[in-house]
């Protein structure tokens, strides 16, 4: 059996140091209505299975002995300066408002300010019940913990804003889903855990004072240049209007873009039933609970506008003159589809090697995507191959590609260095669903080598890595994962 920690992931020097966190907590200073004090609930037998030393250093944490880290990242020991709280929020889930959600299985240990000057939350996920657990057990099982670890770190390496993974611990306890599964805790790092739903909960309660406090807090923490609630709305709109096209440009489907999973910071948050597409189809859905396709791949821009409209609705509640605020907010929200489209176009232009903006580019890109969908072309491999010679092989009918490529080559003549542009925009490696599932199966059998290998390869997604060619292959018919589950 492979050891839990890959040899390269821990600096031997670090064992001389004591694990320490330079906490500088701000959320715990907010009014008590914002959270419940809640310590993580200790687990039976913590075992550290992953630790992200690069991220630890960035956020100011000094790594320590493996046993100490296992206890801290399991929630058995509280590091000095931690002020553990479960945050309150609400949100629309699949379009239905749920007046109270909150951290039902997570606690915020506190915040640090990193070597880059950025403030970040350090949160344990799967750390036991809280006052917001409702019917849940407050726990997570190993599969989703490792999935979030790999996929969020891959997302970061792709250059897309996201929460990150600092550590994963096996708890030595079973959690009951449909069957008994090994329990785990993920340590998640985020620029904050403020969500659209954090605003909604105070707005829905008519708690204007706390809504104002939250607005000021969010501006100070994320968008210090923003002017008032409408400035904040504009800033969040812009961040989300950049994020969703970035997802789409790598074939990512979030799967559960509820308003409580829509971050004010503009980071991707909550890797539940998410997946990267293999063969392209605009209506692709993975989540087993998304029966109506609300969060399908190409529906994501519409849904994020809907989410931002909910943020607008919440923010408006703090204005005395609501009519004027409604008017301004409406304008801000109505401008969002055009921003999404603009960002989408820029991303996809780059994917086919174009920098100049020309009329007809949208049609050219759409034509390719239509042909890809009709020919079950692999999303990642088709775009990656555009800079080489073999793109046509990705199509069940290669002539469908040739028909498109004639126009594309003509258009490319008006570009400087399309190959370089494409290489920077089209990753070779994404966390393919079947590989993630295989990695989880191996880890459950005690073999963490696929986990470490995936992390290492996905850390350099744009580099050709011939020794990892197997990780580029789409799934064989028996490997295809048809659904990802929310049973997290
Ligand atoms: P999610 O689907 O992960 O965004 O979670 C939605 C809500 O359900 C959040 O309030 C979570 O804290 C809560 N939740 C999810 N799983 C559990 C669990 N096992 N125990 C308690 N609460 C949970
Ligand atoms: Mg969530």
List unreliable stretches of 5+ residues: 7-15
Q: Sum up the overall morphology in one term.
A: globular
| Relative strand content | 5-15%
The H/E string reads EEHHEEEEEEHEEHHHEEHHHHHHHHH
Small ligands present: adenosine monophosphate, magnesium ion
Secondary structure topology:
Blueprint: E1 35-37, E2 47-51, H1 53-59, H2 66-74, E3 85-87, E4 91-93, E5 96-98, E6 106-113, E7 119-125, E8 140-141, H3 142-157, E9 164-176, E10 180-190, H4 196-204, H5 208-222, H6 228-249, E11 252-253, E12 275-276, H7 300-316, H8 322-334, H9 336-351, H10 361-374, H11 379-385, H12 398-412, H13 418-425, H14 433-444, H15 449-458
Antiparallel strand pairs: 1-3, 2-9, 4-5, 6-7, 7-10, 8-10, 9-10, 11-12
Helix pairs in contact: 3-14, 3-15, 4-5, 4-7, 6-7, 6-8, 6-9, 7-8, 9-13, 10-12, 14-15
The chain binds adenosine monophosphate and magnesium ion (MG).
Adenosine monophosphate binds at residues 101-105, 132-133, 136-139, 256, 260-261, 270, 272, 488.
Salient structural properties:
488 residues; 15 helices; binds adenosine monophosphate
Written overview of the protein:
With 488 residues, the chain is of the alpha+beta class. Among the domains are: 8-190, no CATH class; 346-425, no CATH class. 39% of the residues lie in helices and 13% in strands. The protein contains 15 helices and twelve strands. It has helices at 53-59, 66-74, 142-157, 196-204, 208-222, 228-249, 300-316, 322-334, 336-351, 361-374, 379-385, 398-412, 418-425, 433-444, 449-458, and strands at 35-37, 47-51, 85-87, 91-93, 96-98, 106-113, 119-125, 140-141, 164-176, 180-190, 252-253, 275-276. Strands 2, 6, 7, 8, 9 and 10 form a six-stranded antiparallel β-sheet that branches. The chain has a two-stranded antiparallel sheet with strand order 1-3. Helix 3 (142-157) packs across helix 14. The longest helix has 22 residues, at 228-249. It is globular. The model is unreliable at 7-15 (pLDDT under 50). Adenosine monophosphate binds at residues 101-105, 132-133, 136-139, 256, 260-261, 270, 272, 488.
